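User: Could you go from structure to sequence for me? I need the amino acid at each position, not a summary. Structure tokens:
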């Protein structure tokens, strides 16, 4: 009996030796040798710790791939370009990878998949059986030890894979993606070169499947206006962008989408000088107005002769010279009402008077635009001495808004946070235009318009023109 027992013990020792030398490639042998009473080294032994270390290294390698992938994909091109200009090593390589990520991403995905498979197979073959034997030595029934060992080993590897191989590396990558992308770029290029044959096979298979499914590749990567707004909002919430800077950026983006009709001073509000007026009336107009330039016409504003500077007229009046308006006229720039606000801005830059007259297709004057109107369209209404105590948008104590009806509807939509009001397909430019588009008629003071839960009440009319509107948000459900 003792001889048999010694022989069985030798068999167990021999099985353990075979298991150590062949590692994860002999899982069948390891499983078969379990019936003989034990395989491999007990937990806590040096060889078992080495096997655990190999698994940890595989998990770290998986985390390296995950961190590299997310860092390069999340990097912003302007920041990478700035690092490259400062001579940061790897930044230019990271730029090249970010510009053509297809080959790089395929290499990383192949690496992550292979490492994950190898880590799972190796850990299951080398760690589970010795751990089961250790549990049996502690008194755990043999029938339960195998299942319990499998659950503990697989659970531990899965937990470590999530923490070491995914969550922590990705958080590191997002903390400073551009710097990390520059550091890992060269190693990713080497990986892509090594994995090139496998990557070409994977990409070819993927393209074939996409072609069979009728899916076309995107021809280019575009950034939408909504994405830019989201980045600005994120920068504001994190404190990188000041609220005032956010408002200025939003104003610039609104301005680029606006037509000249949304920026111009409309025809009824134009203050001009008629050449048929006498000297006293001309001087009274100049002295009681806050404008520095006036369009000059004869009989009708449609017959514009040019623009006159108020200082030229006042200089003549103060030096007792004859008030020769026609001699002070300067040529006016004329633009059609179909041009965009950006086109008019370019015209204003070239104009020495910084004023343009807007006409329609029939040659009738629709309005005029000055550089101050452009500034007001971007930063909001610019107050003058005459209207310093007035505000175009006033929020009342009950949360409603008292708004000038001639304000741009896009600006109003941003201020009252009613995005639906800023319809890109609209055929109006002002809040008054919106009310008219809903009512389909000229409203009266006190008329109320209900629209998508919002309440618009006409507070004041200036003849047939809507002057003030009280806007109330939908009541909370």
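Assistant: Here is the amino acid at each position, in order:
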């Amino acid at each position: 009996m003792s001889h048999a027992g010694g022989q069985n013990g030798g068999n167990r020792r021999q099985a353990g030796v075979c298991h150590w030398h062949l590692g994860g490639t002999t899982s069948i042998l390891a499983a078969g040798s379990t019936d003989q009473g034990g395989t491999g080294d007990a937990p806590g032994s040096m060889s078992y710790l080495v096997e655990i270390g190999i698994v940890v290294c595989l998990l770290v390698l998986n985390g390296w791939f995950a961190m590299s992938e997310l860092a390069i994909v999340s990097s912003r091109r302007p920041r990478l370009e700035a690092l490259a200009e400062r001579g940061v090593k790897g930044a230019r390589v990271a730029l090249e990878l970010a510009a053509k990520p297809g080959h790089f991403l395929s290499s990383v995905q192949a690496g992550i998949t292979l490492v994950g498979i190898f880590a799972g197979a190796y850990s299951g073959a080398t760690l589970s059986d010795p751990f089961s034997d250790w549990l049996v030595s502690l008194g755990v029934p043999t029938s339960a030890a195998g299942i319990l060992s499998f659950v503990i080993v697989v659970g531990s590897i899965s937990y470590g894979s999530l923490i070491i191989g995914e969550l922590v590396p990705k958080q590191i990558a997002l903390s400073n993606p551009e710097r990390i992308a520059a550091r890992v770029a060269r190693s990713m290029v080497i990986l892509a070169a090594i994995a090139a044959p496998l990557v070409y096979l994977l990409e070819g298979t993927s393209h074939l499947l996409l072609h069979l499914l009728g899916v076309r590749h995107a021809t280019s990567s575009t950034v939408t206006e909504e994405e830019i707004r989201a980045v600005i909002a994120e920068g504001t919430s994190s404190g990188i962008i000041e609220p005032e800077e956010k408002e200025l950026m939003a104003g610039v983006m609104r301005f680029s989408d606006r037509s000249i009709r949304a920026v111009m001073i409309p025809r009824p509000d134009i203050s001009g000088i008629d050449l048929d007026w006498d000297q006293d009336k001309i001087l009274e107009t100049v002295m009681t107005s806050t404008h520095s330039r006036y369009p000059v016409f004869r009989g009708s504003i449609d017959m514009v002769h040019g623009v006159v500077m108020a200082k030229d007229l006042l200089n003549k009046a103060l030096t007792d010279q004859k008030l020769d308006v026609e001699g002070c006229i300067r040529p006016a720039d004329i633009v059609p009402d179909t041009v965009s606000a950006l086109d008019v801005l370019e015209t204003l830059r070239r104009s020495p008077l910084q004023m343009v007259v807007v006409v329609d297709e029939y040659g009738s004057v629709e309005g005029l635009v000055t550089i101050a109107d452009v500034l007001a369209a971007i930063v909001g209404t610019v107050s003058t001495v005459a209207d310093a105590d007035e505000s175009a948008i006033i929020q009342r104590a009950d949360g409603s808004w008292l708004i000038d009806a001639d304000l741009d509807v896009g600006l109003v939509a941003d201020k009252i946070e009613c995005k639906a009001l800023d319809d890109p397909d609209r055929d109006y430019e002002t809040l008054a235009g919106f009310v008219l588009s809903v009512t389909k008629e000229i409203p009266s003071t006190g008329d109320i318009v209900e629209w998508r839960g919002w309440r618009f009440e006409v507070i004041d009319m200036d003849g047939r023109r809507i002057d003030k509107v009280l806007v109330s948000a939908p009541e909370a459900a």
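One structural detail worth keeping in mind: Confidence is low (pLDDT under 50) at residues 1-40, 383-390.
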